[in-house]
Amino acid sequence: MIRDITIGQYYPADSRIHRLDPRVKIVCTLLFLVSLFIQNSLLGYVIATLFLGTVIRLSKVPLKYIVKGLKPIVILLLFTVVMNLFLTQSGEVLAHFWIFTITEGGLRTSVFMAIRLMYLVAGSSIMTFTTSPNGLTDGMEKLLHPLNKLNVPVHEVAMMMSIALRFIPILLEEADKIMKAQQARGADFESGNIIQRAKAMVPILVPLFVSAFRRANDLAMAMESRCYHGGDGRTKMKPLRYKSRDRIAYVLTLIYIVLVFVVGRYVPFKLWIF
């Protein structure tokens, strides 16, 4: 399960999405995530599916990487679907057994919430797969630059977020090594119920935290030895500049947002269950 987490990993490739400005990918990802919640129409989600599928194809990131990133949220996904399925009591009753009632509104809400969660993770994964940690840092710093006037340490915030994203695959790899070492010594992480599996994971946390603190200390010493003192007076070797492809990406994303909003709010397209 730990090996299946893909958030924060970078997949090197030569694609149109990789070549986009990091600011474009950050803004467009946020707009895509917002679009999942501003409409509640099956046709709107069909449009979102086509948009996300096109982006995945253009990014040249293998689909198995996207699907692999969905595995860690399976439990959360099932919990959300079940809770919405049985607790949403609206619309026509489709089935009733014992104390559980499934309605048309509950089924509709549970399906849409499942799609939202999956697309939220997939959209975020595409951004990190196609953007290097340095690119994310530069993009976030540039987007948040106006906050400098309010004495917000934008560079430091962007640096911390980039380091956090970069540490995710490193810590996952470290956790995987610890698990394999303990399994070689007879530890069992697969058998038992959820509570027993959670208890079995406790011995992994101590060496993992020790390793994380050690890596953080080494990183801090390395930055100090290179005279790092924040963003004041720092220049960029490759400053970010918008190109024609970036403007086209903005325009296409805005067209998608407007289309999803109009379809989701004003076009009647109901999911009927027979």
Automatic annotation (TrEMBL):
It is found in: Cell membrane. It is a multi-pass membrane protein. GO terms for cellular component: plasma membrane. InterPro entries: ABC/ECF_trnsptr_transmembrane, ECF_transporter_component, EcfT. Keywords: Cell membrane, Membrane, Transmembrane, Transmembrane helix, Transport. Transmembrane (T) component of an energy-coupling factor (ECF) ABC-transporter complex. Unlike classic ABC transporters this ECF transporter provides the energy necessary to transport a number of different substrates. Belongs to the energy-coupling factor EcfT family. This is Energy-coupling factor transporter transmembrane protein EcfT. It comes from Mediterraneibacter catenae. The lineage of its organism: Bacteria, Bacillati, Bacillota, Clostridia, Lachnospirales.
